[in-house]
Amino acid sequence: MEQVDRSEAFRDVPAGARVVAGAGCGTPLTLLAELAEYAERAGGATLTAGILLGDPPLERAVRSGALRVRSWHVHGALRRLRREGLVDYLPMRLLDVSRFVLPEADVALVRVGPPDAAGFCSLGASTGFTADAVEQAGLVIAEVAPDVPRTRGAAAVHVSQIDRFVRSETPMPQHPPVTPDELSRAVARNVVDLIPHGATLQLGLGAVSEGLAVELAPLAAERSLGLLGLVTTPMIPLAEAVIAAGRGPVRAVELMGDERLMTWADNNPGLEMGSSQQLHHPAVLAAEPALVSVNSAVAVDLRGQVVAESVRGTEIAGVGGSADFSEGAHLSPGGLRIIALRSTTRSGASTIVAAHDPADAVTAPHHSVDAVVTEHGCAWLRGRTAAQRRSALLEVAAPEHRDQLARGGR
Protein backbone atom coordinates (compact mmCIF):
# COMPACT_ATOMS: atom_id res chain seq x y z
CA MET A 1 0.00 0.00 0.00
CA GLU A 2 1.32 3.41 -1.01
CA GLN A 3 -0.32 6.77 -0.33
CA VAL A 4 0.37 9.26 -3.10
CA ASP A 5 -0.81 12.64 -4.29
CA ARG A 6 -3.28 12.65 -7.17
CA SER A 7 -0.58 13.85 -9.57
CA GLU A 8 1.47 10.72 -8.83
CA ALA A 9 -1.36 8.23 -9.21
CA PHE A 10 -0.21 7.16 -12.68
CA ARG A 11 3.51 7.41 -12.00
CA ASP A 12 5.41 4.78 -14.00
CA VAL A 13 2.27 3.75 -15.90
CA PRO A 14 3.37 3.48 -19.54
CA ALA A 15 1.63 5.20 -22.43
CA GLY A 16 -1.13 3.16 -23.97
CA ALA A 17 -2.21 1.65 -20.66
CA ARG A 18 -5.54 -0.20 -20.61
CA VAL A 19 -7.59 1.11 -17.71
CA VAL A 20 -10.87 -0.11 -16.22
CA ALA A 21 -12.83 2.06 -13.79
CA GLY A 22 -15.54 1.51 -11.21
CA ALA A 23 -19.00 2.67 -12.18
CA GLY A 24 -22.33 3.84 -10.80
CA CYS A 25 -22.10 5.44 -7.38
CA GLY A 26 -18.63 3.93 -7.19
CA THR A 27 -17.35 6.05 -10.09
CA PRO A 28 -13.85 7.26 -9.06
CA LEU A 29 -14.23 10.86 -10.22
CA THR A 30 -10.92 12.11 -8.80
CA LEU A 31 -8.91 9.38 -10.49
CA LEU A 32 -10.77 9.72 -13.79
CA ALA A 33 -9.96 13.43 -13.88
CA GLU A 34 -6.32 12.56 -13.34
CA LEU A 35 -6.50 9.80 -15.96
CA ALA A 36 -7.58 12.34 -18.57
CA GLU A 37 -4.60 14.56 -17.72
CA TYR A 38 -2.23 11.57 -17.63
CA ALA A 39 -3.41 10.43 -21.07
CA GLU A 40 -2.62 13.83 -22.57
CA ARG A 41 0.79 13.93 -20.87
CA ALA A 42 1.77 10.35 -21.64
CA GLY A 43 0.46 10.24 -25.18
CA GLY A 44 -2.48 7.91 -24.85
CA ALA A 45 -4.56 5.50 -22.77
CA THR A 46 -7.70 3.40 -23.17
CA LEU A 47 -10.50 3.51 -20.61
CA THR A 48 -13.15 0.78 -20.50
CA ALA A 49 -16.10 1.44 -18.22
CA GLY A 50 -19.84 1.20 -17.66
CA ILE A 51 -22.22 3.83 -16.22
CA LEU A 52 -20.01 6.75 -15.21
CA LEU A 53 -22.05 8.97 -12.90
CA GLY A 54 -21.03 12.54 -12.15
CA ASP A 55 -19.86 13.21 -15.74
CA PRO A 56 -16.08 12.98 -15.17
CA PRO A 57 -14.08 15.52 -17.20
CA LEU A 58 -12.94 13.26 -20.01
CA GLU A 59 -14.13 15.21 -23.04
CA ARG A 60 -10.99 17.25 -23.77
CA ALA A 61 -8.75 14.18 -23.67
CA VAL A 62 -11.22 12.22 -25.79
CA ARG A 63 -11.49 14.97 -28.41
CA SER A 64 -7.73 15.35 -28.58
CA GLY A 65 -7.36 11.63 -29.25
CA ALA A 66 -5.26 11.06 -26.16
CA LEU A 67 -7.93 9.04 -24.37
CA ARG A 68 -9.87 6.30 -26.09
CA VAL A 69 -13.06 5.37 -24.26
CA ARG A 70 -14.94 2.10 -24.62
CA SER A 71 -18.25 1.84 -22.79
CA TRP A 72 -20.51 -1.15 -22.16
CA HIS A 73 -23.23 1.21 -20.86
CA VAL A 74 -23.33 4.61 -22.55
CA HIS A 75 -24.50 7.25 -20.08
CA GLY A 76 -24.42 11.00 -19.46
CA ALA A 77 -21.93 13.03 -21.46
CA LEU A 78 -20.64 9.88 -23.16
CA ARG A 79 -23.91 9.67 -25.11
CA ARG A 80 -23.10 12.86 -26.96
CA LEU A 81 -19.54 11.75 -27.62
CA ARG A 82 -20.85 8.40 -28.83
CA ARG A 83 -23.20 10.15 -31.29
CA GLU A 84 -20.16 11.97 -32.65
CA GLY A 85 -18.26 8.71 -33.05
CA LEU A 86 -15.75 9.57 -30.32
CA VAL A 87 -16.67 6.77 -27.91
CA ASP A 88 -16.69 3.07 -28.81
CA TYR A 89 -19.69 1.02 -27.73
CA LEU A 90 -18.87 -2.40 -26.30
CA PRO A 91 -21.91 -4.73 -26.46
CA MET A 92 -21.29 -6.82 -23.38
CA ARG A 93 -23.29 -8.41 -20.58
CA LEU A 94 -22.01 -7.66 -17.10
CA LEU A 95 -20.93 -11.22 -16.38
CA ASP A 96 -18.47 -10.98 -19.26
CA VAL A 97 -16.75 -7.84 -17.95
CA SER A 98 -14.94 -9.92 -15.36
CA ARG A 99 -14.24 -12.67 -17.87
CA PHE A 100 -13.01 -10.70 -20.87
CA VAL A 101 -12.25 -7.07 -19.93
CA LEU A 102 -10.51 -7.40 -16.57
CA PRO A 103 -7.87 -9.96 -17.62
CA GLU A 104 -6.62 -7.41 -20.18
CA ALA A 105 -6.58 -4.44 -17.77
CA ASP A 106 -3.25 -2.92 -16.82
CA VAL A 107 -4.82 -0.59 -14.25
CA ALA A 108 -8.04 -0.69 -12.19
CA LEU A 109 -9.45 2.49 -10.67
CA VAL A 110 -11.82 2.09 -7.72
CA ARG A 111 -13.38 4.22 -4.99
CA VAL A 112 -13.21 2.99 -1.39
CA GLY A 113 -13.81 4.15 2.15
CA PRO A 114 -11.02 4.54 4.74
CA PRO A 115 -9.59 1.30 6.19
CA ASP A 116 -10.90 0.00 9.51
CA ALA A 117 -8.77 -1.20 12.43
CA ALA A 118 -8.21 -4.53 10.68
CA GLY A 119 -7.05 -2.84 7.47
CA PHE A 120 -10.20 -3.45 5.41
CA CYS A 121 -11.63 -0.80 3.10
CA SER A 122 -15.10 -0.95 1.58
CA LEU A 123 -16.02 -0.72 -2.10
CA GLY A 124 -19.34 0.56 -0.81
CA ALA A 125 -22.02 0.96 -3.45
CA SER A 126 -20.53 -0.96 -6.37
CA THR A 127 -19.02 -4.44 -6.24
CA GLY A 128 -20.20 -6.16 -9.44
CA PHE A 129 -16.95 -6.18 -11.38
CA THR A 130 -14.86 -3.97 -9.08
CA ALA A 131 -14.47 -6.78 -6.54
CA ASP A 132 -13.07 -8.91 -9.37
CA ALA A 133 -10.98 -6.01 -10.73
CA VAL A 134 -9.10 -5.71 -7.46
CA GLU A 135 -8.15 -9.38 -7.83
CA GLN A 136 -7.23 -9.32 -11.52
CA ALA A 137 -5.76 -5.95 -12.56
CA GLY A 138 -2.02 -5.48 -12.73
CA LEU A 139 -2.11 -2.19 -10.79
CA VAL A 140 -4.96 -1.20 -8.45
CA ILE A 141 -5.34 2.48 -7.63
CA ALA A 142 -8.02 3.54 -5.14
CA GLU A 143 -9.35 6.94 -4.29
CA VAL A 144 -10.29 7.07 -0.63
CA ALA A 145 -13.33 9.10 0.43
CA PRO A 146 -15.16 9.31 3.75
CA ASP A 147 -18.66 9.19 2.21
CA VAL A 148 -18.34 5.61 0.92
CA PRO A 149 -20.74 3.40 2.92
CA ARG A 150 -19.21 0.42 4.69
CA THR A 151 -21.10 -2.49 3.19
CA ARG A 152 -20.68 -6.21 3.75
CA GLY A 153 -19.80 -9.22 1.63
CA ALA A 154 -17.68 -8.73 -1.49
CA ALA A 155 -17.23 -5.03 -0.70
CA ALA A 156 -14.45 -5.76 1.81
CA VAL A 157 -11.00 -5.11 0.32
CA HIS A 158 -7.82 -5.32 2.40
CA VAL A 159 -5.24 -2.55 2.03
CA SER A 160 -2.73 -5.17 0.89
CA GLN A 161 -4.83 -5.68 -2.26
CA ILE A 162 -4.48 -2.02 -3.29
CA ASP A 163 -1.23 -0.70 -4.72
CA ARG A 164 -1.82 3.06 -4.43
CA PHE A 165 -4.17 5.23 -2.43
CA VAL A 166 -5.18 8.77 -3.41
CA ARG A 167 -7.21 10.95 -1.09
CA SER A 168 -10.43 12.25 -2.67
CA GLU A 169 -12.49 15.24 -1.59
CA THR A 170 -14.95 14.76 -4.45
CA PRO A 171 -18.43 13.84 -3.19
CA MET A 172 -19.81 10.47 -4.19
CA PRO A 173 -21.74 10.70 -7.47
CA GLN A 174 -25.45 10.09 -7.01
CA HIS A 175 -28.22 8.55 -9.07
CA PRO A 176 -31.32 10.72 -8.42
CA PRO A 177 -34.45 8.73 -7.58
CA VAL A 178 -37.03 8.41 -10.34
CA THR A 179 -40.57 9.29 -9.32
CA PRO A 180 -42.91 6.91 -11.14
CA ASP A 181 -45.78 8.65 -12.94
CA GLU A 182 -49.29 7.20 -12.98
CA LEU A 183 -48.71 5.26 -16.21
CA SER A 184 -45.57 3.65 -14.80
CA ARG A 185 -47.46 2.76 -11.61
CA ALA A 186 -50.22 1.23 -13.74
CA VAL A 187 -47.66 -0.96 -15.52
CA ALA A 188 -46.24 -1.94 -12.15
CA ARG A 189 -49.66 -2.95 -10.81
CA ASN A 190 -50.08 -5.30 -13.77
CA VAL A 191 -46.70 -6.87 -13.01
CA VAL A 192 -47.70 -7.44 -9.38
CA ASP A 193 -50.31 -9.93 -10.54
CA LEU A 194 -47.58 -12.12 -12.05
CA ILE A 195 -45.32 -12.33 -9.00
CA PRO A 196 -45.66 -15.76 -7.33
CA HIS A 197 -45.43 -16.49 -3.63
CA GLY A 198 -41.82 -17.00 -2.54
CA ALA A 199 -40.35 -15.21 -5.56
CA THR A 200 -36.92 -13.62 -5.51
CA LEU A 201 -37.05 -10.38 -7.47
CA GLN A 202 -34.51 -8.73 -9.72
CA LEU A 203 -35.60 -5.24 -10.72
CA GLY A 204 -33.87 -3.09 -13.35
CA LEU A 205 -33.46 0.67 -13.38
CA GLY A 206 -36.30 3.01 -14.31
CA ALA A 207 -39.67 4.35 -13.30
CA VAL A 208 -41.57 1.11 -13.83
CA SER A 209 -39.20 -0.95 -11.66
CA GLU A 210 -39.20 1.66 -8.94
CA GLY A 211 -42.99 1.85 -9.14
CA LEU A 212 -43.09 -1.93 -8.81
CA ALA A 213 -40.93 -1.75 -5.70
CA VAL A 214 -43.42 0.69 -4.17
CA GLU A 215 -46.36 -1.57 -5.02
CA LEU A 216 -44.67 -4.70 -3.67
CA ALA A 217 -43.32 -3.32 -0.39
CA PRO A 218 -46.63 -3.84 1.51
CA LEU A 219 -46.91 -7.36 0.05
CA ALA A 220 -43.35 -8.57 0.73
CA ALA A 221 -44.14 -10.38 3.98
CA GLU A 222 -47.40 -11.88 2.75
CA ARG A 223 -45.76 -13.21 -0.43
CA SER A 224 -42.41 -14.06 1.21
CA LEU A 225 -40.42 -12.10 -1.37
CA GLY A 226 -36.66 -11.87 -1.76
CA LEU A 227 -34.57 -9.25 -3.59
CA LEU A 228 -31.24 -9.32 -5.39
CA GLY A 229 -29.18 -7.50 -8.02
CA LEU A 230 -29.82 -3.78 -7.74
CA VAL A 231 -31.09 -1.50 -4.99
CA THR A 232 -32.19 2.09 -5.63
CA THR A 233 -33.47 4.68 -3.17
CA PRO A 234 -37.18 3.99 -3.88
CA MET A 235 -36.51 0.29 -3.26
CA ILE A 236 -35.54 0.85 0.40
CA PRO A 237 -39.04 0.09 1.80
CA LEU A 238 -39.19 -3.13 -0.24
CA ALA A 239 -35.70 -4.12 0.90
CA GLU A 240 -36.61 -3.43 4.53
CA ALA A 241 -39.80 -5.48 4.19
CA VAL A 242 -37.86 -8.37 2.65
CA ILE A 243 -35.38 -8.32 5.53
CA ALA A 244 -38.11 -8.03 8.17
CA ALA A 245 -39.94 -11.00 6.64
CA GLY A 246 -36.88 -13.20 7.03
CA ARG A 247 -35.94 -13.35 3.34
CA GLY A 248 -32.78 -11.37 3.84
CA PRO A 249 -30.11 -10.53 3.37
CA VAL A 250 -30.79 -8.50 0.26
CA ARG A 251 -27.96 -9.38 -2.14
CA ALA A 252 -26.77 -6.62 -4.43
CA VAL A 253 -24.05 -5.80 -6.92
CA GLU A 254 -25.02 -2.13 -7.24
CA LEU A 255 -26.56 0.54 -5.03
CA MET A 256 -27.79 3.31 -7.33
CA GLY A 257 -29.21 6.22 -5.40
CA ASP A 258 -28.64 9.24 -3.21
CA GLU A 259 -27.38 9.97 0.29
CA ARG A 260 -30.45 8.36 1.85
CA LEU A 261 -29.63 5.02 0.22
CA MET A 262 -25.99 5.19 1.28
CA THR A 263 -26.97 5.95 4.88
CA TRP A 264 -29.35 2.99 4.83
CA ALA A 265 -26.65 0.71 3.42
CA ASP A 266 -23.90 1.74 5.84
CA ASN A 267 -23.16 -1.19 8.20
CA ASN A 268 -26.56 -2.71 7.41
CA PRO A 269 -26.48 -6.43 8.33
CA GLY A 270 -29.49 -7.01 6.07
CA LEU A 271 -27.51 -6.07 2.94
CA GLU A 272 -24.80 -8.21 1.38
CA MET A 273 -22.81 -7.05 -1.64
CA GLY A 274 -21.72 -9.63 -4.20
CA SER A 275 -19.44 -9.89 -7.21
CA SER A 276 -20.58 -10.47 -10.78
CA GLN A 277 -19.30 -14.02 -10.58
CA GLN A 278 -21.73 -14.56 -7.70
CA LEU A 279 -24.81 -12.59 -8.72
CA HIS A 280 -24.58 -12.35 -12.51
CA HIS A 281 -23.74 -15.96 -13.24
CA PRO A 282 -26.78 -17.85 -14.62
CA ALA A 283 -25.56 -21.11 -13.09
CA VAL A 284 -25.59 -19.50 -9.64
CA LEU A 285 -28.88 -17.71 -10.23
CA ALA A 286 -30.49 -20.95 -11.43
CA ALA A 287 -30.29 -22.27 -7.87
CA GLU A 288 -32.59 -19.45 -6.74
CA PRO A 289 -36.19 -20.76 -6.66
CA ALA A 290 -38.77 -18.62 -8.48
CA LEU A 291 -36.34 -15.95 -9.68
CA VAL A 292 -38.40 -13.25 -11.38
CA SER A 293 -36.43 -10.89 -13.61
CA VAL A 294 -38.19 -7.60 -14.42
CA ASN A 295 -36.53 -5.26 -16.88
CA SER A 296 -37.64 -2.42 -19.13
CA ALA A 297 -37.03 -1.70 -22.79
CA VAL A 298 -37.02 0.97 -25.47
CA ALA A 299 -39.35 -1.08 -27.69
CA VAL A 300 -40.76 -4.57 -28.25
CA ASP A 301 -41.76 -5.79 -31.70
CA LEU A 302 -44.72 -8.02 -32.52
CA ARG A 303 -42.49 -11.10 -32.44
CA GLY A 304 -41.42 -10.33 -28.88
CA GLN A 305 -37.91 -9.11 -29.73
CA VAL A 306 -36.63 -6.49 -27.30
CA VAL A 307 -34.52 -3.41 -28.01
CA ALA A 308 -33.12 -1.85 -24.83
CA GLU A 309 -29.75 -0.34 -25.77
CA SER A 310 -30.41 2.19 -28.50
CA VAL A 311 -32.81 4.55 -30.24
CA ARG A 312 -32.59 4.70 -34.05
CA GLY A 313 -29.13 3.16 -33.92
CA THR A 314 -27.68 5.44 -31.25
CA GLU A 315 -26.74 3.69 -28.01
CA ILE A 316 -28.26 5.22 -24.88
CA ALA A 317 -27.60 2.41 -22.41
CA GLY A 318 -26.22 -1.14 -22.56
CA VAL A 319 -26.98 -4.82 -22.22
CA GLY A 320 -26.20 -4.55 -18.51
CA GLY A 321 -27.16 -7.45 -16.30
CA SER A 322 -30.46 -8.10 -18.06
CA ALA A 323 -29.13 -11.05 -20.10
CA ASP A 324 -27.51 -12.60 -17.03
CA PHE A 325 -30.63 -12.32 -14.88
CA SER A 326 -32.89 -13.42 -17.73
CA GLU A 327 -30.92 -16.63 -18.24
CA GLY A 328 -30.84 -17.24 -14.51
CA ALA A 329 -34.62 -16.77 -14.27
CA HIS A 330 -35.13 -19.11 -17.24
CA LEU A 331 -33.17 -21.87 -15.46
CA SER A 332 -34.69 -21.17 -12.03
CA PRO A 333 -37.53 -23.51 -10.95
CA GLY A 334 -40.66 -21.38 -11.23
CA GLY A 335 -38.65 -18.48 -12.69
CA LEU A 336 -40.09 -15.80 -14.94
CA ARG A 337 -38.67 -13.26 -17.43
CA ILE A 338 -40.74 -10.08 -17.68
CA ILE A 339 -40.31 -6.99 -19.84
CA ALA A 340 -42.33 -4.10 -18.38
CA LEU A 341 -42.76 -0.78 -20.16
CA ARG A 342 -45.25 1.97 -20.90
CA SER A 343 -47.13 1.44 -24.14
CA THR A 344 -46.06 4.87 -25.42
CA THR A 345 -43.07 7.14 -25.09
CA ARG A 346 -43.51 10.53 -23.47
CA SER A 347 -43.96 11.98 -26.96
CA GLY A 348 -46.80 9.54 -27.69
CA ALA A 349 -44.99 7.10 -30.01
CA SER A 350 -45.78 3.43 -29.57
CA THR A 351 -43.23 1.27 -27.75
CA ILE A 352 -44.87 -1.82 -29.25
CA VAL A 353 -43.69 -1.79 -32.86
CA ALA A 354 -44.36 -3.86 -35.96
CA ALA A 355 -40.63 -4.08 -36.61
CA HIS A 356 -37.55 -2.55 -35.03
CA ASP A 357 -35.42 0.06 -36.74
CA PRO A 358 -32.79 -1.89 -38.75
CA ALA A 359 -30.10 0.22 -37.08
CA ASP A 360 -31.02 -1.10 -33.61
CA ALA A 361 -29.58 -4.32 -32.21
CA VAL A 362 -31.93 -6.77 -30.50
CA THR A 363 -31.00 -6.94 -26.82
CA ALA A 364 -33.25 -9.89 -25.96
CA PRO A 365 -34.38 -12.39 -28.63
CA HIS A 366 -38.01 -13.41 -28.88
CA HIS A 367 -37.43 -16.79 -27.24
CA SER A 368 -36.02 -15.24 -24.05
CA VAL A 369 -39.11 -13.30 -22.90
CA ASP A 370 -41.98 -14.90 -20.99
CA ALA A 371 -44.26 -11.87 -20.68
CA VAL A 372 -44.50 -8.27 -21.85
CA VAL A 373 -46.46 -5.96 -19.56
CA THR A 374 -47.80 -2.47 -20.24
CA GLU A 375 -50.49 -0.39 -18.54
CA HIS A 376 -53.00 -2.19 -20.80
CA GLY A 377 -52.26 -5.64 -19.43
CA CYS A 378 -49.98 -8.64 -19.84
CA ALA A 379 -49.02 -10.28 -23.13
CA TRP A 380 -48.08 -13.84 -22.22
CA LEU A 381 -45.51 -15.13 -24.73
CA ARG A 382 -44.08 -18.28 -23.21
CA GLY A 383 -45.23 -21.35 -25.14
CA ARG A 384 -47.21 -19.26 -27.63
CA THR A 385 -46.99 -19.46 -31.41
CA ALA A 386 -45.76 -16.50 -33.43
CA ALA A 387 -49.37 -15.65 -34.36
CA GLN A 388 -50.53 -15.86 -30.76
CA ARG A 389 -47.65 -13.64 -29.63
CA ARG A 390 -48.55 -11.04 -32.23
CA SER A 391 -52.19 -10.97 -31.08
CA ALA A 392 -51.23 -10.76 -27.42
CA LEU A 393 -48.79 -7.90 -28.02
CA LEU A 394 -51.33 -5.95 -30.06
CA GLU A 395 -53.71 -6.15 -27.10
CA VAL A 396 -51.22 -4.45 -24.75
CA ALA A 397 -50.27 -1.74 -27.26
CA ALA A 398 -51.82 1.70 -26.89
CA PRO A 399 -55.35 1.59 -28.41
CA GLU A 400 -54.64 4.52 -30.74
CA HIS A 401 -51.75 2.60 -32.34
CA ARG A 402 -53.27 -0.89 -32.64
CA ASP A 403 -54.83 -0.59 -36.07
CA GLN A 404 -51.69 0.81 -37.64
CA LEU A 405 -49.54 -1.85 -35.95
CA ALA A 406 -51.83 -4.60 -37.18
CA ARG A 407 -51.34 -3.31 -40.72
CA GLY A 408 -47.59 -3.45 -40.26
CA GLY A 409 -46.93 0.24 -39.63
CA ARG A 410 -44.63 1.59 -36.96
Task: Tell me what the structure shows.
This protein is an alpha/beta fold. The protein has 2 domains: 2-167, Glutaconate Coenzyme A-transferase; 182-406, Acetyl-CoA hydrolase/transferase C-terminal domain (Glutaconate Coenzyme A-transferase, 3-Layer(aba) Sandwich), CATH 3.40.1080.20. Helix content is 29%, strand content 23%. Strands 9-15-14-13-12-16-21-23-24 form a 9-stranded mixed β-sheet, sandwiched between helices. Strands 1-11-8-6-2-3-4-5 form an 8-stranded parallel β-sheet, with helices on both faces. Helix 1 (29-42) links the parallel strand 2 (17-21) and strand 3. It is globular and about 65 Å long. The termini are far apart. The mean pLDDT is 95.
Could you provide a short overview of the structure?
The chain has helices at residues 29-42, 59-64, 77-83, 94-101, 130-136, 182-192, 207-216, 220-223, 236-244, 259-265, 276-279, 282-285, 322-331, 386-396, 399-406; strands spanning 2-4, 17-21, 45-49, 67-71, 87-89, 107-112, 120-122, 139-144, 152-153, 156-158, 164-167, 200-203, 226-232, 250-256, 271-273, 291-295, 299-301, 306-307, 310-311, 314-315, 336-340, 352-353, 371-374, 377-380.
